[in-house]
Specification:
Chain lengths: ~120, ~150
């Protein structure tokens, strides 16, 4: 590889980072915001209905973190992708392009692991 | 309204399923000059020509799914939990995760078909296409089964 166009560097870094940040956000509860669809409200950060009220609130006001996890991964990947565009081309040549498909596979395996509790009920 | 959105989501997903399946097979199967079998003709397409359409269809399907998901969480999931469909809910959780990871892959997928690397043995584009194909098939089947559990209009 003699030259790596800027968008290509961004895309490779973004794709790799997005997958890894998503699974970390999923595992560590790092949602940028929490959506309560039945109430029509959005709270910044990760919240659980049971944290602030009666346990029955979880049924009455189910919370959704998927949008928040996706937003966290998007934001983090945008930062890392932007930083990657600033690197000299010779540095980015050392980045193995295969990471862009290896990282999502690892992230998907990680997500499958995090889903195991559903199958133990 | 929700049912109409769900049907639209399913229709766009069918188009995406066809496109990504064509592209995946074409990416991995060396095309012969004159394909004779059904499989040969199915995979004898220019895989790069599908990239733009797949990106648009994937984003469209994911956006529609993200809207329908709000209704699912409020109206459907409590019933599935009450009836103890834990496996279906687990597979649906994975669908959300896989779809999000697929969204993050789209820029790399798109650029890998537009300007392939010269020194990477041509693996990146087919590998990314295969991952997206798996995600699309997973999402389609799990969404279909989840919908079948509750039934149309229930």
């Amino acid at each position: 590889m003699t030259s790596v166009p800027v968008f290509r560097r961004f895309a490779l870094a973004y794709g790799t980072a997005f997958a890894l940040i998503y699974v970390i956000a999923r595992a560590r509860g790092l949602a940028l915001f929490t959506v309560y669809p039945s109430l029509g409200i959005i709270l910044m950060g990760m919240h659980r209905s049971r944290d602030v009220a009666d346990p029955a609130m979880d049924f009455l006001a189910p919370e959704m973190w998927w949008y928040g996890w996706t937003a966290t991964a998007t934001l983090g990947a945008l930062v890392i992708g932007s930083i990657a565009t600033l690197f000299p081309t010779r540095w980015s040549c050392r980045f193995w392009p295969g990471w862009v498909w290896v990282a999502p596979v690892l992230a998907m395996i990680g997500c499958a692991y995090l889903t195991i509790p559903w199958f133990r009920q | 309204m929700t049912t109409a959105l769900l049907i639209l989501h399913g229709l766009v997903a069918v188009a995406l399923l066809g496109a990504i399946t064509h592209q995946t097979l074409a990416a991995w199967t060396p095309s012969s000059a004159r394909p004779r079998s059904f499989f040969g003709r199915f995979s004898a397409v220019q895989p790069a020509a599908y990239a733009n359409a797949i990106v648009v269809l994937y984003v469209g399907t994911a956006l529609l799914g993200a809207i329908v998901y709000l209704y699912f969480k409020v109206d459907i999931q409590p019933d599935l939990e009450r009836d103890r469909h834990w496996h279906a809910l687990g597979f649906f959780d994975l669908k959300e995760d896989f779809v999000a990871i697929g969204l993050g892959l789209l820029p790399a997928y798109w650029i890998s078909w537009r300007r392939p690397f010269a020194d990477e043995r041509g693996w990146t584009a087919p590998a990314l296409t295969t991952i997206l194909g798996f995600i699309v098939w997973w999402g389609f089947l799990v969404g279909h089964v989840t919908n079948d559990i509750m039934g149309f209009g229930s």
